[in-house]
Amino acid sequence: MTCFGWQRARQMVVMLLLWMQRLRATQAFSLSHSIALFKNGGCTARQFAKYATPLLSRKHLSVNSALFATLSDPTAGRTVGDDVAPQDDNCLPTILLKRSRQSKSFRNGNQLVFTKAIQRVESGGDLQAGQLVRVKVEGEKGQQPMLLGWGVYNPNSLYRVRILCHRFLLQKQAFKSMESSISNLPLENREGKALGIILRRQFSKAWKTRQALQLIPTGSSSSLYSLETDTFRLLNGEGDNLSGLAADVIGGDTVVIMSSAAWCEVHKTVIMSSLQSILPSQMNLVWKTTPSRLTQDGYKPSVDDTTPTSVDDENKMIISMENGVRYATWPYKDGQKTGVYCDQRENRFNLAQYCHGKRVLDLCCYHGGFSLNALVHGNASHATGVDSSQEAIDVCHENVKLNEISANRVHFVRSDIADFLRQRAEVCDFDPGNDHYFDVVVLDPPKLAPSANVLEKARRKYHSFNRDALKLIDPQNGGLLLTCTCSAAMSQEAGGQYFLTMVQGAALASGRDVTLLKVFGAASCHTQSPICWPAGSYLTAALFRVHPTSEDEEY
Predict the structure, then answer these.
(1) For residue 328, how many C-alpha atoms fall within 13 Å in the half-sphere facing its CB?
(2) Do the strands 479-485 and 440-443 form a parallel or antiparallel pair, or are they unpaired?
(3) What is the DSSP track for 325-340?
(4) Burial (CB count within 10 angstroms: exposed 0-12, middle 13-18, buried 19+), residue 369
(5) Parallel, antiparallel or unpaired: strands 440-443 and 410-414
(6) H or E stretch at 513
(7) CA–CA distance from 494 to each of 321, 459, 497 (Å)?
(8) Average pLDDT, integer, range 443-452
(9) 3-class SS letters over 216-280
(10) Strand partners of residue 363
(11) How many C-beta atoms lie closer than 10 Å to residue 215's C-beta?
């Protein structure tokens, strides 16, 4: 019986005693002998029930307040002095899922549990946001409920439970080992210790996954600085069974953790200590939050949640490297992001192979990733980067120096891309020579559709950007367009067809003919859960061949 079962039994005994006391008994019987045996470790709860039952069956009973306190003590369900709970006595609250169509995906491995899938909550009181719980599902045909795993509860969130360790995402023996380890934990701080066990397992698995991707060298003596890439996503939310938590390694020795769920803030200390335990000793941790997502998760940050950063740390520049290209980053600065967008790392490198001797236009260039790769790896003749942020443009110039690129091969412009595209199109119309056009255009705007509610509005904006970008591709020789969206709503709508159809419409509006060559996603370090896919798929990078306008005249 669980500790909550014993607690309910004791409460029933107290109610029975109160009722019997109201009979105004004329004779009193004492349970002190049985209680003393139980409280001092002389008998188990089962033996106590055996001794006490005959006494409780009497009609005349008087009970004092000390007896009430003893019977109501939630720790009385075990032998005093035994600081390890029995195998069948797990004092974590339990969330019982329905065995229904609504809960099928959660039973099969989906990590986000919604309210309608929950049958009931079994706890000794109100559960708090971030509290660790066991997740069970109703048994079939009268069978006992089955343990699915452990997760974190949030009464204020659409995601009522985020499952961090799921039975069907682990091998059988590994899950049994996890269950045994948690069941045998001391009762003191059981929640924190159980969460630490779960997190260390998931962190270790994520680390080994990046080793398999050759982003981390094997062997404890190896240095991350020896690789051409020392910046990558280490933890990726549901992809690593850590919903609401992400982390990027930057420059090989700095890990920026991004919290976007209430449980991460509640268990910040456990998260950081557990992660530090699997990292090389030289690596530093930086904690950042995503306020909008925390608010959506029902969490209101306080002043205490903010980790103070010294001025020296804020101004500390970390040089990160992707495929041999160097970038200046400031991960200690205030802000939500980690300082890099490593989700496009592989796409930047792959596009570079098509840029030899080409003129490249990099729209919404941020720190110039596509431009730098085109110049360093693709030997492009020239690259032009455009971004609305002066700070981003300044970093682009810094990155050009870091990579020793000749200044006459690259040009960065601070401008709203809509204004830039319109003005450039006007120049091309006035002087239709090839000098004003580009061979390769990259369009990588920020998230325009944060939710499905604004999808149509975002589609119109994407359409206008793509239409005007296509107009700047060399009409005589044609070229390539890599157009991107980082909006999950856009990427997932109609299985991805929605975004591609929009591009086709933009091509018709611009008077250009396009052929889809390939569709890319986020870099492989942005892992995904096969059970949750395509919910975790947010980035689409579609590569198109843009045909010359003269081709139509040849036939």
Answers:
(1) 16
(2) parallel
(3) EEEEE-TTSSSSS-S-
(4) buried
(5) unpaired
(6) none
(7) 36, 13, 5
(8) 87
(9) CCCCCCCCHHHCCCCCEEEEEHHHHCCCCEEEEEECCCEEEEEECCHHHHHCHHHHHHHHHHHCC
(10) 386, 443
(11) 23
Please give the single-letter amino acid code of residue 59: K
CA-wise closest residue to 434 among 549, 353, 526: 549
* 90 Cβ contact list (under 8 Å, min separation 6): 2, 3, 134, 182, 183
Q: Edge to edge, what strands does the sheet with 359-363 contain?
A: 410-414, 382-387, 359-363, 440-443, 479-485, 540-546, 514-520
DSSP letter at 160? S
Based on the number of CB atoms within 10 Å of its own CB, is 509 exposed (0-12), middle (13-18) or buried (19 or more)? middle
For residue 486, what are the β-bridge partners?
A: none
Q: Decide if pLDDT at 19 tops 60.
A: no
Task: Identify the band that residue 224 occupies on the pLDDT scale cut at 50, 70 and 90.
Answer: low
More confident position, 195 or 18: 195
Cα–Cα distance for residue pair 419/161, rounded to 1 Å = 45
Question: Can you tell me the distance from the alpha carbon of 320 to that of 403, in angstroms, rounded to the nearest whole number?
Answer: 12
Instruction: Write the single-letter amino acid at 27.
Output: Q
Look at residue 304 in the predicted model and tell me its pLDDT. Answer: 57
Q: How far is CA 23 from the centre of its chain?
A: 60
Q: How far apart are CA 412 and CA 397, in angstroms?
A: 8
Question: Where does 284-439 have alpha helices with state H?
Answer: 291-296, 311-314, 345-352, 369-376, 390-402, 417-430
Amino acid (one-letter) located at 50: K
Tokens representing 271 are 């998260």
Question: If residue 107 lies in a helix (H) or strand (E), which one and from where to where?
Answer: helix 104-107
Mean pLDDT calculated for residue range 284-311:
78
- Tokens representing 202 are 């998931």
Answer whether 114's CB lies under 8 Å from 160's CB.
Answer: yes
Proportion of the chain in helix, strand, coil states, percent, rounded to 5: 40, 20, 40
Cα separation, 500 vs 207, whole angstroms: 35
Tokens at 538, concatenated: 């947010």
- Between CA 357 and CA 362 the distance in angstroms is 15
Residue 296's Cβ-side half-sphere holds a number of Cα atoms within 13 Å equal to: 13
Place of tokens 């250009």: 512
Which pTM does this prediction carry?
A: 0.81
What is the side-by-side order of every strand in the sheet holding 94-97? 112-113, 161-166, 146-153, 131-137, 94-97, 118-122
- d(C-alpha 358, C-alpha 326), whole Å: 22
Task: Name the strands in the sheet holding 284-289, side by side, starting at the edge strand that comes first in the sequence.
Answer: 232-236, 245-250, 254-259, 284-289
Which residue's entry shows tokens 């809509």?
A: 418
User: pLDDT digit string (tens) for 152-190?
Assistant: 999 999 899 999 999 988 889 999 999 999 999 988 889
- Measuring CA to CA, how many Å separate 147 from each of 109, 137, 476? 13, 7, 65
Q: What is the CA radius of gyration of the chain?
A: 31
Distance, in Å, from the CA atom of 196 to the CA atom of 83, rounded to the nearest integer, reads: 19
